[in-house]
Amino acid sequence: MSKRVKIIIPVPVDSDGVENRRSQLPEEWIRPGYEVEFVSVKNGASLGDSYYDTLLMDMFVFEAGLKAEEEGYQAVCIDTVSDSGLYALRSRLEIPVFGPGQTAFHTASMLGHKFSVITMWDEWFHLYQKTLNDYGLKDKLASLRSINTRPDLSELLSGKEEIIFEKLERESWKAIEEDGADVIVLGSTTMHQSYQYLKEKLPVPVINPGLVMYKYCEVYLELGLTHSKKAFPSPEINKDEVVFNSLMHQN
């Protein structure tokens, strides 16, 4: 029987948007015996550009993952480096739940002494500051750098590759030469199209967070590992239906 993995897109997108997000995980990277499904949230955030928007991402990513175990999935992955809803879903589920921020930042820490996050715009800096603080990795951060370009979370970088890739390369070189980074982390799974380009242009490892997260997921499933319920205890009182049925009814 196939191991089913649910990957939750943190913003509402149409079928074309789902396919664009799915393209970050080529079929050849999925081991035999795995079935991967990308699923968009029903409602919620737009750009993740504020604490308001990140609260919405937390809520609706959480809602999208709540029934994953009942639906027959063996793991949940969250398709945003903000790791929205990660700890709440680990508390609610027994199956493993992964976030690309956590896996990317820890992987970068294993590959070098200092890493820089290269992202689309400054408005996402607060996402990394929160998770790096939560994971105790702030001392591993060389810098946060952006290209000050408003992201398109549905079309991603399509049609803008030549301009965007060069901007990302320039900021990456600054991170390496001026900030002391010896690893570069892409600041969003939506930036995956730039991975191969930067990997070929830069003299240090480049982390593609969505791909790294998924491969960790396979390893954990094959080793029979999941998160500690002592670290992420289940709630004594479950109010899923009360809260989300009411929320959906209002919409």
From TrEMBL:
Residues spanning the membrane: none
InterPro entries with a match to the protein in the record: Asp/Glu/hydantoin_racemase, Asp/Glu_race, Hydantoin_racemase-like, Iso_Racemase_Enz_sf
A GO term, aspect molecular function: amino-acid racemase activity
Pfam families xrefs: Asp_Glu_race (PF01177)
Domain of life: Bacteria
Gene3D superfamilies linked to this entry: 3.40.50.12500
Family recorded in the similarity comment: Belongs to the HyuE racemase family.
Protein name per UniProt: Hydrogenase expression protein HupH
